[in-house]
Amino acid sequence: MKNKNLRYYNNARKDIIKIIPKNVKKILSLGCGAGITEKILEEKHIKVTGIELNKKIAETAKKNMTKVFVGNIEKINIPFKKYFDCILYADSLEHLTNPQKSLILTEKYLKDKGFLIISFPNIRFWYTFYMLFFKKDWMYSDRGIFDSTHLKFFTLKSMKRLLKETGYKIVNVKRNYRLFEFPTKYNRLAKFISIIFFKDLLTFQFIVVAEKIK
Fold first, then answer.
1. In what order do the strands lie in the sheet with 26-30?
2. How far apart are CA 63 and CA 103, in angstroms?
3. Which of 23, 176, 168 is nearest to 91 (CA)?
4. Residue-level pLDDT, tens digit, the chain, 214 residues
5. Considering only CA atoms, which of 202, 120, 197, 198 is closest in space to residue 156?
6. So what's the pLDDT on residue 60?
7. Are residues 208 and 170 in contact, defined by beta-carbon separation less than 8 angstroms?
8. Phi first, then psi: what are they for 115, rounded to 5°?
């Protein structure tokens, strides 16, 4: 494993933690990585079960949460039915071959009126248009919008459609704004200079909370 990819496994997503509904006590985290975010949730007395494909990373995750299963979240079956208050896809749905199938498969683990939280990169970010119209290219990279491991791309509108088709209704949306793909202190300005026309163009990532309605 390349060191430059370790950030995917060891990133604490405090922005996701802030958006989790208050009545959630049991979470299924799909693609949990090393469980850094999940450790924080456990400290808040939320029990977290994770599924992680990377066996080595999963061993670390087991120290940070209630339980971890090793396997592919598109295929694995775990012994829980209508058990979790919330299912979390933290930057994992875009890495799947069939996100719709995965949402349908994992729905059985979620309680009625339970929540689904998905964080995903916004393909309408301005850099996409820059690459297509000015660079006339589509170059994959090690991270960001053009991450070479991304298999699917979403806008907020396409995510809303996907969730509606799989039995969910969005109840909250959070935007992470950026001026540039890479981390820089100037990214904090993006939210303040954003106006309605540019809102989606400066949204690097969305976090949506959806309620199960089926």
1. 67-70, 47-52, 26-30, 84-90, 110-121, 203-212, 168-177
2. 27
3. 176
4. 344 455 556 678 999 999 999 999 999 999 999 999 999 999 999 999 999 999 999 999 999 999 999 999 999 999 999 999 999 999 999 999 999 999 999 999 999 999 999 999 999 999 899 889 998 988 888 888 888 899 999 999 999 999 999 999 999 999 999 887 777 787 787 777 877 668 999 999 999 999 999 7
5. 120
6. 95
7. yes
8. -115, 150
* Residues contacting residue 6 through CB under 8 Å, at least 6 positions apart: none
Residues in the chain: 214
* Two structure tokens written together for 41: 């949730």
Residue bearing tokens 């670390």: 60
Beta bridge partners of 110: 84
β-strand 168-177 against 203-212: which pairing, if any?
Answer: antiparallel
**For residues 95 and 75, what is the distance between their CA atoms, to the nearest angstrom?**
14
Partnered with residue 107 across adjacent β-strands are: none
Q: Do the beta carbons of residue 204 and residue 178 sit within 8 Å?
A: yes
Phi, psi for residue 209 in degrees, rounded to 5? -110, 125
Question: Which residues does residue 69 pair with via DSSP β-bridges, in sequence order?
Answer: 51
The domains located in the chain, with CATH, are: 3-122+152-178+205-212 (3.40.50.150)
CA distances from 14 to 28, 58, 108, 110 (A): 17, 21, 27, 23
Tokens of 214: 């089926």
Block residue for tokens 């088709």: 165
